[in-house]
Automatic annotation (TrEMBL):
Keywords: ATP-binding, Ligase, Nucleotide-binding, Protein biosynthesis, Transferase. This is Aspartyl/glutamyl-tRNA(Asn/Gln) amidotransferase subunit C. It comes from the Bacteria. Belongs to the GatC family. Allows the formation of correctly charged Asn-tRNA(Asn) or Gln-tRNA(Gln) through the transamidation of misacylated Asp-tRNA(Asn) or Glu-tRNA(Gln) in organisms which lack either or both of asparaginyl-tRNA or glutaminyl-tRNA synthetases. The reaction takes place in the presence of glutamine and ATP through an activated phospho-Asp-tRNA(Asn) or phospho-Glu-tRNA(Gln). Pfam families: GatC (PF02686). Its EC number is 6.3.5.-. Heterotrimer of A, B and C subunits. It catalyses: L-aspartyl-tRNA(Asn) + L-glutamine + ATP + H2O = L-asparaginyl-tRNA(Asn) + L-glutamate + ADP + phosphate + 2 H(+); L-glutamyl-tRNA(Gln) + L-glutamine + ATP + H2O = L-glutaminyl-tRNA(Gln) + L-glutamate + ADP + phosphate + H(+). SUPFAM superfamilies: Glu-tRNAGln amidotransferase C subunit. It comes from Arachidicoccus ginsenosidivorans. It is an enzyme of class 6 (ligase). GO terms for biological process: glutaminyl-tRNAGln biosynthesis via transamidation; regulation of translational fidelity; translation.
Length: 97
């Protein structure tokens, strides 16, 4: 079992660039000890003959064929826009200098 020491908590605190007072460090230490105990408990389960689960579903890499299809014309695209110059859709300026 991994020993959760004050030094380990201090090292993790330093690596995460967080700061905790002594009360918080004790709470974190207790929580980490509970997590380690939980993982140790999982090691007791007999998983002989159980295949690892790599994906939730049996489907993998389901992609459609990249088929070029037709699109609408510029005139059709501009048909319902509020403001256009005939080539582009005109929108209000949103970035001010």
């Amino acid at each position: 079992m991994v020993a959760i020491t004050d030094q380990l908590i201090d090292d993790l605190t330093h690596l995460s660039r967080l700061s905790f007072d002594e009360t918080e460090k004790e709470a974190i230490k207790t929580d980490m000890e509970q997590m380690v105990l939980f993982v140790e408990k999982l090691k007791e389960v007999d998983t002989t003959g159980v295949a690892p689960l790599l994906h939730i579903t049996p489907n993998q890499n389901i992609f459609r064929e990249d088929i070029v299809e037709g699109s609408i014309s510029r005139e059709e695209a501009l048909q319902n826009v509020p403001k256009t110059d005939g080539t582009y859709i005109q929108v209000p300026k949103v970035i001010k200098k």
